[in-house]
Amino acid sequence: MAKNSALIEPRLPRGFVDSEPADLAAVEEMVAKIRHVYERYGFDPLQTPFLEYTETLGKFLPDTDRPNAGVFSMQDDDEQWLSLRYDLTAPLARYFAQNYQDLPKPFRSYRQGWVFRNEKPGPGRFRQFMQFDADTVGAAGPEADAEICMMMADTMDALGLAGKYVVRVNNRKVLDGVLQAIGVADEGQKLTVLRAIDKLDKFGPEGVRLLLGEGRKDESGDFTAGAGLDPAQIAAVIDYVGGKVPSGNEGIAELDAMAALFASAGYGEDRIRIDPSVVRGLEYYTGPVFEIELTFTVQNEKGQDVLFGSVGGGGRYDGLVSRFRNEETPATGFSIGVSRLASALKLTGNLSSRPATGPVVVTVMEKDRIADYQKMVAELRAAGIRAELFLGSSKNMGKQMKYADKRNAPAVIIQGSDEREAGIVQIKDLAEGAEAAASITDNAAWKAERPGQYSVPRGDMVDFVRQIPAVAAWMEVNARP
């Protein structure tokens, strides 16, 4: 490239984040525990592509005034519109309908993957984020919904959050009955009411009153239009979310059946409870809806203590698959927000934030002996040990050691001409060396003692490295079949 060529500024697109090794290792640790619970319940993995035909995603986005505006879309070479998936549920509905004849009914699956939303990014709000879903398609009874809720509770327990969460359950049929009783029939107005109730935890009863009425202006001056209900209608909705639930509703019967199942399986109200204020925002929910709420407090941007809040939720969506098939197909499921849940686990100390263990680094003291060093690396790898050869240009040992530190290497292998002639290698346990060095204040003493460094016969190199605690721990977690 010519010297006067304009350089491209390295910029991360707005609303997207890079994931570094420590973050990826922590998330993998978390999803492995989630996956274990799902599979214990009999759910099998499924993976769908990032792209779907735009019509597959449908008009089930939060803002129904501009359907499909919240997705990233493009045209392929035959002018068909494709979109990055907005969630993992619409692709599941497409997959089930497309493979209907070959799948067991009910069909249980779980999916983990990235989803994309073409929305304005903000603090904690990204355009790409990971979800972890589990769904049962083809089961109509409340026992399927109850099982999903119990699996949500067991998942939180497996992640170390026992006593710090509650699964809250409601039924959209109950609220639909309330809206029908007060004369709200317009679908757009219904959806605005649902969104208002969904903000109860964030804005409180008075904020919900404003959103049910003329609207609400936030602290920045932005105005959110309300549902336009009259005072009597608003009072009826507020009574409902406060616990005054009408009797004789089909949704009440379903909630009673679910509550009985929770009780019989030993899930008390400290883990799963019926809560009339739960309203999932998407319009395709047709029955029971549920959320996982973490009940410990954190500080918001104003320094106030607030509940951490929801990390996932879902519900029954019996109409989604019928977009592809003539008959109605019952379905229920839930989705976990992986990044938000990971943040919660870090706050509670249930998710490691330490860097992932790096490879054992074989240093290069003599360039003309590179084949010997490569042989050492090959022996370590053959034994199941993560290892790499230093490929930088410097022969300076200090720089190679700094490289090993940045790689979070558990150990380094050193062999110069003296060691080679003596038939040995120097092995430095970096964790032990760092711990010992912390108690040595004299630099000369540190050099003389060389903490954590051992002279080992060349033939014993692999066995010695395998016994280094950090290496042994990595091998245990990543044991080869």
From TrEMBL:
GO molecular function: ATP binding; histidine-tRNA ligase activity
Self-association state and partner proteins as the record states: Homodimer.
Binding site for L-histidine: 87-89, 117, 131, 135, 280, 284-285
Catalysed transformations (reactions): tRNA(His) + L-histidine + ATP = L-histidyl-tRNA(His) + AMP + diphosphate + H(+)
Gene encoding the protein: hisS
Keyword check for Ligase: yes
Name of the protein in its database record: Histidine--tRNA ligase
CDD domains named in the record: HisRS-like_core, HisRS_anticodon
UniProt record similarity statement: Belongs to the class-II aminoacyl-tRNA synthetase family.
Keyword Cytoplasm set for record: yes
Leader peptide range in chain numbering: none
Predominant place of localization: cytoplasm
EC numbers, comma separated: 6.1.1.21
Protein's organism: Pelagibacterium lacus
Alphabetized Pfam families for the sequence: HGTP_anticodon, tRNA-synt_His
GO cellular component: cytoplasm
All residue ranges annotated as the Aminoacyl-transfer RNA synthetases class-II family profile domain in the record: 28-359
Example GO BP: histidyl-tRNA aminoacylation
Protein's cellular compartments: Cytoplasm
Keywords from the named record: Aminoacyl-tRNA synthetase, ATP-binding, Cytoplasm, Ligase, Nucleotide-binding, Protein biosynthesis
